[in-house]
């Protein structure tokens, strides 16, 4: 290669078009004893590659050699260009003063077009350091020169950088305009890495504007592009962590940040990126409730940012450190002062996080009883409630609610909470996936709790009921968004089923399953990723809960018992006979512990020979009643009862409680959900569907007998019980009975499944139904187990069915004896055939069973959900 040849001049832009090829050509060029000018280019290419994708120490070595070669070649522009690249590397290594000095020398050496490129890279460094105004000034000076030189690549880079700086300052519209202009330029180039970066940047813009599904989709697309190029994605990791946290997936964000830190340390990568990843990990740990991990990560991030002279970033890390210390119970006057100082600095930077810091200072001051200081800080934070992205406005309304609470204004608290939850409602409905909708409610938990406390003081039981319903089981109010034609998702589901089926067969035969399980997890990640990309297509819930309508539907016979939790204690709201009454019961934590004891007892009673455990389980049931119903138990009368428990009590076998044992009993995630189920009409054709999956101990013995009882029934068993056929028949059915092994996935509740002939049918499958069966009976273990997420949401098989048209479900919350299930199910269907509801039929079926411990425990493990 000769100096100035096309091959040499193409190497620099090639680093971000085809990084691997650029690295190989640069090394080959150095092996060919090049001229000093060509050697300078080759060393610079290797330095850039190592700086961005490899070992920073090697990067500095090659860039210094590149500069020496440029000096020997006596090329001022070449030396200026290398100095700018070296300056970026030094700043990423944490040697900020040396890096900025390199830029000064580069700007002085280069002229015209070269100097504009130097200014662009210095602007990038200013952005890394958090000096946003300086970054905008350098870009302002660089862009006209780059445009005049018709330098498409560097103009696009400069516009992308300017957009990113605008985002850091909260100017989303300006950022989107620059991203759009840059993308039009990228489309005319072959810069594949730069194009991936542009997609990643658009994902960040979507997130800043409040569109989480689009942000996740674009970040996943960018990751795929980077993977094709074989380049690491540390900046992408940081941005994805931000989005995951906003989506309520903080544990996943923490795992991603920690994994990226490990990878970065392994290659000797940029210390600036490590500091940013530590900050992301600290935020994620705090949101995940792990205050001590958050303190450790944030403290290290503060030290790194301080050493790198990155005040903007250091201040953000200090905010997270103070939040984590407050969460760990370390409130003090010093902490108030620290939070206030951070708020002031963030405000001076124009950082969107400034209101969060003011809110934090106000919270800590309130905890200390410093009402005047609290009011000052909260008033500043409350200004953000009027404008900006949804979560920023939510911060403002939280501050306003705390101000009203401190002032003793219950009306002010309720108004602020209403407005804040309305903002979050609108945001939640942009999310298509039920998992994201559920997890997003966590961000409104504080407002809901504040409103409940205020309503208890000022409005009595009715108002407390309204606010208990306001943020309970909101996911069930509307069906999840379903992609009508997503061939990649459908093929992924098919592949997942096949792999899961093969893994199950291998386990049963004692063959190795590690590779199959690894592939199953990969497919699960792909399926989940595609569902998280879906945007919501429903408007906010206009069907607000109406106490009068509920009482009218309940009439004089049915009582609805809603359990609210305030300050850790259960409040019993007894609804019916035209009024709402409140009773105070026990501590939620004690009830949760007792419920676990009951579950353990039921597991033992599912096996013959455990009769001695029956009195222990019954005694635990009596204690549960005292803790959960308290004095309300004496006011239940003798009619039907609907229990509406909080999410953390979803595994309680309610039929075990003495005052509920002999009555018609159903369970509902919310009073609003029960109302919708009560008002759902059955399909006109009355078609039943009976499904029998493989591998049952009894062979699903009740299904053949039920087939004889229901002459018009569609029966799917053996090879016909395949997922596509089962879903087709379930859609719109009047009654479905599924006898199949159930598996609950606590780690990923939407992959909880029922085993069919061709593999598992999972919650994601049920969410694709246009209309799920009006009534559905799930006759095997763990089908009623649910994951409690968000503020008070539940994810699992039962809750997937309720928004899709199912008015009633019978399912099981514990392991049961398969043989004892068969007579219970036959008795249940006998009651349905006589025109009873699911709850009535289940009550009679329990009474018809033998009185031994095995059959009693089986009856207690099943619950009727809904109102059909």
Overall shape: it is globular
Low-confidence stretches: 1-5
Side-by-side strand order of the widest sheet: 7-6-8-12-15-16
* Percent in strands: 5-15%
The gyration radius over C-alpha positions equals 31 Å
Span of the ends, CA to CA: 81 Å
CATH fold topology of the largest domain? Serine Threonine Protein Phosphatase 5, Tetratricopeptide repeat
What's the architecture of the largest domain in CATH terms? Alpha Horseshoe
What's the average pLDDT? 89
User: Strand pairing plus helix content: what structural class?
Assistant: alpha/beta
CATH class of the largest domain: Mainly Alpha
Could you name the CATH homologous superfamily of the largest domain?
Tetratricopeptide repeat domain
Helix content: 55-70%
Sketch the major β-sheet: 6 strands, mixed
Say how many strands there are.
16
Characterize the quaternary organization of these chains. single chain
User: Treating each run of at least 4 consecutive H or I residues as one helix, how many helices?
Assistant: 38
Number of domains: 5
Question: What's the short version?
Answer:
With 868 residues, the protein is α/β, with parallel strands linked by helices. The chain is built from 38 helices and 16 strands.
């Amino acid at each position: 290669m000769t100096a100035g040849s096309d091959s040499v001049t193409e190497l620099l832009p090639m680093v971000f078009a085809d990084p691997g090829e650029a690295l190989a050509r640069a090394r080959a060029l150095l092996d060919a004893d090049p001229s000093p000018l060509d050697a300078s280019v080759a060393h610079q290419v290797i330095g850039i590659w190592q700086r961005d994708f490899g070992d920073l120490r090697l990067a500095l070595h090659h860039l210094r050699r590149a500069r020496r070669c440029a000096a020997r070649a006596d090329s001022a522009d070449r030396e200026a260009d290398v100095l700018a690249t070296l300056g970026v590397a030094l700043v990423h290594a944490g040697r900020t003063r040396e890096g900025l000095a390199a830029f000064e020398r580069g700007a002085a050496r280069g002229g015209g077009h070269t100097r504009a490129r130097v200014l662009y890279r210095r602007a990038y460094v200013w952005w890394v350091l958090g000096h946003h105004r300086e970054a905008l000034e350098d870009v302002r000076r660089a862009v006209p020169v780059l445009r005049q030189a018709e330098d498409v690549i560097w103009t696009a880079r400069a516009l992308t950088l300017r957009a990113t700086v605008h985002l850091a300052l909260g100017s989303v519209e300006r950022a989107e305009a620059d991203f759009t202009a840059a993308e039009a330029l990228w489309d005319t180039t072959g810069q594949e890495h730069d194009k991936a970066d542009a997609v990643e940047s658009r994902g960040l813009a979507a997130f800043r504007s409040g569109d989480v599904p689009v942000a996740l989709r674009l970040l996943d697309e960018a990751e795929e592009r980077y993977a094709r190029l074989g380049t690491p994605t540390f900046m992408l990791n940081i941005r994805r962590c931000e989005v995951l946290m906003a989506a309520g997936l903080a544990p996943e964000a923490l795992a991603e940040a920690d994994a990226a830190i490990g990878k970065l340390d392994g290659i000797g990568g940029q210390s600036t990126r490590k500091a940013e990843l530590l900050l992301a990990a600290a935020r994620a740990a705090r949101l995940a409730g792990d205050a001590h991990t958050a303190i450790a990560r944030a403290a290290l991030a503060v030290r790194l940012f301080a050493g790198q002279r990155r005040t903007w970033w250091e201040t953000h890390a200090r905010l997270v450190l103070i939040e984590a210390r407050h969460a760990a119970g370390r409130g003090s006057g010093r902490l108030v002062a620290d939070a206030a100082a951070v708020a002031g600095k963030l405000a001076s930077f124009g950082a969107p996080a400034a209101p969060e810091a003011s809110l934090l200072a106000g919270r800590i001051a309130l905890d200390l009883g410093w009402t005047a200081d609290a009011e000052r800080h909260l008033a500043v934070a409350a200004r953000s409630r009027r404008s900006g992205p949804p979560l920023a406005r939510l911060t403002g309304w939280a501050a306003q609610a705390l101000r009203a609470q401190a002032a003793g204004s219950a009306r002010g608290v309720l108004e602020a909470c209403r407005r804040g939850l309305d903002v979050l409602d609108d945001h939640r409905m942009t999310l298509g996936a039920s998992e994201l909708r559920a997890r997003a409610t966590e961000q409104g938990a504080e407002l809901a709790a504040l409103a409940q406390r205020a309503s208890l003081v000022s409005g009595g039981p009715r108002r407390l009921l309204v606010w208990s319903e306001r943020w309970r089981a909101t996911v069930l109010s509307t069906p999840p968004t379903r992609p009508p034609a997503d061939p990649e998702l459908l093929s992924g589901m098919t592949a997942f089923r096949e792999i899961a089926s093969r893994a199950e067969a291998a386990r049963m035969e004692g063959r190795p399953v590690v590779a199959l399980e690894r592939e199953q997890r990969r497919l699960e990640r792909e399926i989940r990723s595609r569902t998280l990309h879906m945007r919501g297509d429903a408007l906010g819930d206009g069907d607000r809960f109406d106490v009068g309508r509920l009482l009218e539907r309940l009439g004089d016979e049915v009582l609805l018992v809603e359990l609210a939790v305030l300050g850790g204690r259960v409040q019993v709201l007894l609804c019916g006979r035209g009024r709402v009454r409140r009773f105070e019961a026990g501590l939620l934590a004690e009830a949760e512990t007792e419920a676990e004891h009951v579950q353990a007892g039921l597991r033992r009673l599912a096996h013959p020979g455990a009769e001695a455990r029956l009195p222990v389980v019954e005694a635990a049931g009596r204690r549960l009643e005292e803790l959960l119903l308290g004095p309300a138990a004496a006011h239940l009368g003798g009619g039907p009862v609907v229990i509406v428990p909080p999410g953390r009590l979803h595994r309680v076998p309610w039929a075990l409680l003495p005052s509920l044992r002999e009555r018609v009993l159903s369970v509902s995630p919310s009073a609003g959900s029960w109302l919708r189920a009560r008002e759902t009409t059955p399909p006109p054709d009355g078609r039943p569907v009976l499904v029998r999956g493989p591998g049952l101990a009894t062979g699903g013995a009740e299904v053949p007998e039920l087939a004889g009882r229901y002459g018009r029934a569609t029966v799917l068993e053996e090879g016909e019980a395949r997922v596509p056929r089962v879903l087709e028949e379930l859609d719109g059915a009047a009654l479905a009975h599924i006898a199949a092994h159930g598996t609950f996935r606590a780690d990923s509740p939407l992959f909880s499944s029922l085993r069919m002939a061709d593999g598992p049918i999972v919650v994601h499958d049920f969410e694709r139904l246009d209309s799920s069966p009006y009534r559905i009976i799930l006759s095997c273990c763990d089908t009623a187990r649910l994951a409690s997420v968000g503020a008070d949401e539940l994810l699992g098989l039962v809750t997937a069915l309720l928004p899709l048209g199912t008015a009633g479900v019978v399912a099981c919350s514990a392991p049961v004896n398969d043989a004892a299930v068969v007579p219970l199910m036959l008795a249940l269907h006998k009651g349905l055939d006589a025109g009873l509801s699911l709850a009535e039929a289940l009550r009679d079926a329990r009474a018809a069973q033998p009185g031994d411990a095995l059959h009693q425990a089986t009856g207690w493990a099943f619950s009727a959900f809904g109102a059909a």
